[in-house]
Amino acid sequence: MTTEISTLMTAAAERTVPIVQGIRDDQLGDPTPCDKFQVRDLLNHLFQVVVSFQGAARKEPLDFSATPDFVTEGWRDRFATETERMIAAWSDPAALDGISPGMGMPQPLVGNLALADLTVHGWDLATATGQPYRPADAAVDHLFPFVQQMAPTGRQMGAFGDEVPAPEDAGIFERLLALIGRTVA
User: Fold this and answer.
1) What InterPro entries does UniProt report for this protein, alphabetically (predicted)?
2) Are 54 and 89 in contact (CB under 8 A)?
3) Model pTM score
4) Helix or strand or coil: residue 106?
5) Which of 14, 55, 78, 167 sits between 20 and 30 A of 67, alpha carbons compared?
């Protein structure tokens, strides 16, 4: 069984999982385009997203009050496994019904948050570690109107930075990144 969001997550994961697996240990302390995170911090955040949003699909409360250190023995393979589990959880159509008890928003929006993190942080990590990254076009097309809608709230909550100007010839992904405060070189 699949849903549109699980199909989009699969496409995003096909791009992001290899980026995560390609990060060298000596890069864990490097800065990322996400100002408040070094590579290790961002990996832990993204790991927490893919683990926590498995439960979010089952309408379990989310707890982001602490970020565990997931970057331990075997973390590259565990990230791939946990990402597959998140996708499987969002493959159930029931995951899209109702309101999230932990976030107080419609479940489809919660799924979009996970998709956005998987896509944008894939780019963040690729950029930080010098790896090429091309997002899944279908995921970006789906996310752009969502990010436009959520940008004010995202900024207010500290999840997005201030919008930066996008180059005049920017494509949709570059415009999405600019909306959330990422400067594309």
Assistant:
1) CHP03086, DinB/YfiT-like, Maleyloyr_isom, MDMPI_metal-binding
2) yes
3) 0.95
4) strand
5) 14
